[in-house]
Specification:
The chain is of the alpha/beta class and 291 residues long. It contains eleven helices and ten strands. The strands form two sheets. A five-stranded parallel β-sheet has the order 3-2-4-1-5, sandwiched between helices.
Length: 291
């Protein structure tokens, strides 16, 4: 059972799990319903009790906060489920923005819905949507890729796997890794338009727009920026897709041919890129003859 004892706190919400969005920067963006849930929910769970504690303190709210994050989720989840089973209202918040978007909470929602408990949202700020809307790039279709791998090789593979998606790409990235990430993107698609949204809704908010080559060059010279980063990359055009596919085939084949016979290399690359084996094999033989 989760201890939800708080002075002068009486729940006025129905039982269930409430996903509560919190500001990504400017505290004035907090939804009124979020404050109401924080004041009156039977249990308030959050990713970091210090971060949420400072937010609540700003609005004069004193609550016992239950930590729920990726490191303690297996232990904390049964306690929150027990609270739901007792007919209590449970509010879940992440450090900033909308819970579950690159934050813990999915498994809790899955178990709550499987158990027949009400799951409701208190919508509000989201860095993903905020960055997309100010990027100046198409918003009718977008794909959220979260954080890409930190190592260059794995990151390049991840970029290759999402680059052909016919939608604007939205990703989160740490400030320190941003120059390397942009260099990998620019190496594959230098002319594709992109935007770097930094410190959204905060005092030093900045949105830098340009081609991937231009943005990579800027941050290579300026170095990593400060603050929270969202990267938005425009969708491909047909010409870029054709060139990218040809470049990807040749790059992957040359690497595979170092250790494999042409037939083996072609089979491996064709499977990875989802291309006809005969087409890739013909290119493998051409590269072998060139060598």
């Amino acid at each position: 059972m989760v201890d939800s004892t708080d002075d002068n706190t009486t729940s006025k919400h129905g039982p269930g799990l409430y996903l509560v969005a919190t500001p990504i920067g400017n505290l004035g963006d907090i939804p009124p319903r979020a404050l109401d849930l924080f004041r009156h929910a039977d249990v308030v769970a959050c990713e970091d009790t210090r971060t949420t504690g400072r937010l609540l303190q700003r609005f004069g709210i004193k609550r016992h906060l239950v930590p729920y994050h990726e490191h303690n989720a297996e232990r904390a989840r049964p306690l929150l489920m027990a609270a739901l089973a007792e007919g209590k209202s449970v509010a879940l918040a992440s450090d900033a923005g909308t819970p579950l978007i690159s934050d813990p909470g999915y498994k809790l929602v899955r178990e709550a819905t499987a158990g027949g408990f009400r799951v409701s949202t208190v919508p509000g700020p989201s860095s993903v949507i905020a960055a997309l809307t100010v990027s100046g790039l198409p918003t009718d279709r977008f794909y959220f890729a979260g954080f890409l791998p930190s190592k260059s090789g794995a990151r390049a593979q991840a970029i290759a796997s999402i680059a052909a998606i016919d939608a604007t790409l939205v990703m989160l990235e740490s400030a320190q890794r941003l120059p390397a990430m942009l260099a990998d993107f620019a190496a594959a698609f230098p002319s594709r338009p992109a935007a770097i949204a930094r410190e959204l809704t905060k005092l030093h908010e900045e949105v830098r727009r340009g081609s991937l080559a231009e943005l990579a060059a800027h941050y290579a010279e300026a170095g990593p920026p400060k603050g929270e980063i969202v990267v938005v990359v425009g969708p491909p055009d047909p010409t870029e897709s054709e060139t990218a596919t040809a470049d990807s085939i040749d790059r992957d084949l040359r690497e595979a041919l170092l250790t494999m016979r042409p037939s083996e290399a072609a089979a491996s690359v064709a499977a990875r890129l989802g291309l006809p084996r005969k087409q890739v094999y013909a290119r493998a033989m051409a590269l072998k003859d060139e060598a």
